[in-house]
């Protein structure tokens, strides 16, 4: 006789499972999936793979009658991960016309502990790594010479403290240097102030995107108190992107501090370079670079009414690294503020990670994800993170703010779109008085929460069954777990042949609670509609077309203002009389789940182009995974390199090669691949940019881990 308590994901996140023996749980779904059941599950990170009879689909909002059979097992059960891009290794067993899932070694678990739990060592050897040529598919191109530099969050634990968010990991820079057919690998932690102080004090002293700093043990109580009101704890941990500047690399994040690196040794040569002397306090990590090497970027100023400053910084280390500021009498180009745009709302500046630049326009998306200035001002005292100061307003339109590059004045006409979230822009170009903007768009910003380490951890989301013996009134020592689920109502429980059978009405997540808000029960919104239970948010390659010179006649007749024929029948832009804006729809090109886009930037940024290369590792219906994908933006066709189920590629970087021709896609695509298979090496993958066929791979030693990075660049 037992009493049963099932703890869902929210209850189990703070529990420690490592030292407890677990039992595998088999699920038997009695529902046939009829009625209003759908074949997706809101916010579930990965769909189950079936090698024989497929498992019944479950809805995010629709319950299934589930039987849980507990039995003793030698192995450990692991959960389906909450991460949007991890999968698990599962086997499906058909028994008596029902599908039973028995989880074996979890790829998600391997990936999580490889990337987030293992302390990565620096790799200082400059010995060539093993080159594996892909047989009949060719070798390393003879004229491919240079270095692929990447930066990555790499250290997530300091002493007894742990980072909360993936973006906050202490940064490591690494490089694959290619010369005369050989490849060398080198990695090194970036010695930012955030890193050096963390190492010397064994605790986290700088707040990050989702992680709150701890009090400095070297300060007394009064010093600690006053430090709450200073900016000396703004992080300079440059874990996001790299920029080329003269003979150096600049590592950057989304704060005002940049870091200078030696591209050959990867040594940190100058840290905490305060860019607020030249630009605003907060800047996106993706400035644009013109043919002369100038950096263009938007920065946010929070004082008074929030505003966005467009700046231009020349590629001069003497200017960028001069903490006293540039000398006014120099004849060389100086940093300058080109334009100022006031934000839409007071105390609510928008968050942006990138922007678009065409030949004649800068385009900033003022998306309805903003920073609550009051929360930002008080977060040092309230001990809240930057991410916790973000607020999403799904009823507010996204706004395209355009700045004319010739006049540096904002375009008077306002363009809007239905609310969306964007990390990365792909490209923007002009055609027949229209501005075409391509980006990786999301329907909401839930992807940010997905990168909290607790959500990336495949074991943090386990549901736990707590049993109490009714005779002894003591808890059963054995721990039982299951894939994460939510339950309102249990049906029954009984014992049979030393097994406890529990029947309940289970949901894949608790979104059913939100469904019973009266606004959602309104028949016009539709209970169990896609609006109430959307598919897990995946990025889409979206194209927006903004008509720059609409005619007054077309506006008065309320016509579609897009006149380019190949776009006119696929999307709309119509004048909105209520606010004077032109409201634009979009089209989706290719499958969902593509991110970290790269193009032939040097030759085609701001110009009409055809190809984009994307990272495809999201789990979701119809999406790519373990893949690098080339998308034809004109035809919508895709071609992909697919790795094995243990291989996770990173951002693809296009490198043009003269030997490959003069086409837009004449060159190679480079990506670093993390392989979580037992004894499998990580490697640099070299692909033919036209065909996406593997040319070669350079494998690092199996005792060396290549961190999963966000962005990088190739220097020759």
Walk me through the structure.
The structure is a single chain. This protein is mostly beta strands and 716 residues long. It has a domain at 2-113 and 454-521. The chain is built from 13 helices and 45 strands. The strands form 12 sheets. Strands 6, 40, 41, 42, 43 and 44 form a 6-stranded antiparallel beta sheet that branches. It is globular. The protein starts with a strand and ends with a strand.
Computed structural class:
mainly beta
Residue fraction in strands: 35-45%
What sort of overall outline do the alpha carbons produce when their principal axes are compared?
globular
Let me know the average pLDDT: 76
Q: Looking at the chains present, what oligomeric state does this protein adopt?
A: single chain
What's the main sheet like?
6 strands, antiparallel
Helix content: 10-25%
Helix segment tally: 13
Uncertain spans: 6-106, 217-230, 523-536
Characteristic terms for this protein:
globular, six-stranded mixed β-sheet, 716 residues, Carotenoid_Oase, metal-binding, six-stranded antiparallel β-sheet, 45 strands, iron, metal ion binding, carotenoid dioxygenase activity, mainly beta
In short, what is this structure?
Pfam families: RPE65 (PF03055). The protein has 716 residues and is mainly β. 11% of the residues lie in helices and 36% in strands.
């Amino acid at each position: 006789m037992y009493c049963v308590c099932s703890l869902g994901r929210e209850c189990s996140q703070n529990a420690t499972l490592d030292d407890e023996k677990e039992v595998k749980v088999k699920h038997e779904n009695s529902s046939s999936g009829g009625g209003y059941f759908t074949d997706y599950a809101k916010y579930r990170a990965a769909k189950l793979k079936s090698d024989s009879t497929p498992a019944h689909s479950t809805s995010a909002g629709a319950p299934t009658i589930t039987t849980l059979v507990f039995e003793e097992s030698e192995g450990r059960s692991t959960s389906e991960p909450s991460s949007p891009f991890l999968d698990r290794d599962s086997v499906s067993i058909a028994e008596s016309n029902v599908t039973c899932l028995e989880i074996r070694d979890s790829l998600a678990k391997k990936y999580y502990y490889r990337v987030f739990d293992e302390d990565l060592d620096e790799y200082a050897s400059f010995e060539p790594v093993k080159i594996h040529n892909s047989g009949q598919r060719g070798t390393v191109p003879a004229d491919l010479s240079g270095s692929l530099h990447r930066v990555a969050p790499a250290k997530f634990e300091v002493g007894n403290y742990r980072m909360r968010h993936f973006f906050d990991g202490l940064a490591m820079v690494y490089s694959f240097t290619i010369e005369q057919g050989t490849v060398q690998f080198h990695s090194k932690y970036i010695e930012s102030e955030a890193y050096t102080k963390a190492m010397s004090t064994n605790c986290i002293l700088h707040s990050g995107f989702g992680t709150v700093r701890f009090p400095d043990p070297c300060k007394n109580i009064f010093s600690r108190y006053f430090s709450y009101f200073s900016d000396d704890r703004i992080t300079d941990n440059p874990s996001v992107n790299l920029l080329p500047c003269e003979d150096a690399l600049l590592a950057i994040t989304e704060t005002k501090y940049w870091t200078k690196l030696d591209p050959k040794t990867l040594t940190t040569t100058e840290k905490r370079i305060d860019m607020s002397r030249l630009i605003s306090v907060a800047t996106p990590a993706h400035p644009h670079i013109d043919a002369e090497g100038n950096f263009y970027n938007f920065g946010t100023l929070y004082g008074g009414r929030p505003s966005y400053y467009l700046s231009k910084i020349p590629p001069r280390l003497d200017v960028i690294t001069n903490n006293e500021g540039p000398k006014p009498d120099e004849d060389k180009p100086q940093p300058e503020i080109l334009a100022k745009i006031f934000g839409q709302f007071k105390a609510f500046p928008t968050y942006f990670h990138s922007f678009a630049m065409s030949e004649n326009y800068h385009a900033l998306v003022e998306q309805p994800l903003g920073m609550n200035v009051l929360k930002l001002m008080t977060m040092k005292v309230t001990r809240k993170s930057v991410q916790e100061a973000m607020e999403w307003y799904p009823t507010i339109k996204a706004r395209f703010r355009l700045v004319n590059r010739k006049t540096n004045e904002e375009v008077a006409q306002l363009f809007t779109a239905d609310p969306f979230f964007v990390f990365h822009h792909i490209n923007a170009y002009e055609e027949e008085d229209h501005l075409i903007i391509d980006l990786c768009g999301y329907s909401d910003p839930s992807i940010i929460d997905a990168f909290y380490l607790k959500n990336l951890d495949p074991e943090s989301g386990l549901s736990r069954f707590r049993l109490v013996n009714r005779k002894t009134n003591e808890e059963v020592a054995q721990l039982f777990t299951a894939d994460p689920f939510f339950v309102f109502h249990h049906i029954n429980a009984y014992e049979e042949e030393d097994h406890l059978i529990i029947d309940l009405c289970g949901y894949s997540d608790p979104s059913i609670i939100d469904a019973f808000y009266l606004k959602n029960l309104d028949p016009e919104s539709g209970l169990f509609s896609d609006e109430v239970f959307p598919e897990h948010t995946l990025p889409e390659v979206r194209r927006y077309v903004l008509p720059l010179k609409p005619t007054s006649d077309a506006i008065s007749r309320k016509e579609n203002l897009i006149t380019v024929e190949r776009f006119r029948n696929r999307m709309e832009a119509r004048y909105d009389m209520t606010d004077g804006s032109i409201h634009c729809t979009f089209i989706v090109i290719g499958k969902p789940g593509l991110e970290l886009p790269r193009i032939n930037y040097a030759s085609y940024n701001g110009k009409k182009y055809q190809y984009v290369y994307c990272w495809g590792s999201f789990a979701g219906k119809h999406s790519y995974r373990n893949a690098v994908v080339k998308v034809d933006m004109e035809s919508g066709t895709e071609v992909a390199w697919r790795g094995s189920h243990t291989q996770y590629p990173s951002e693809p970087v296009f490198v043009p090669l003269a030997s490959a021709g003069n086409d837009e896609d004449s060159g190679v695509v480079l990506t670093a691949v993390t392989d979580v298979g037992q004894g499998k090496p990580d490697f640099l993958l070299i692909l033919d940019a036209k065909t996406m066929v593997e040319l070669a791979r350079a494998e690092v030693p199996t005792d060396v881990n290549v961190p999963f990075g966000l962005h990088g660049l190739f220097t020759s």
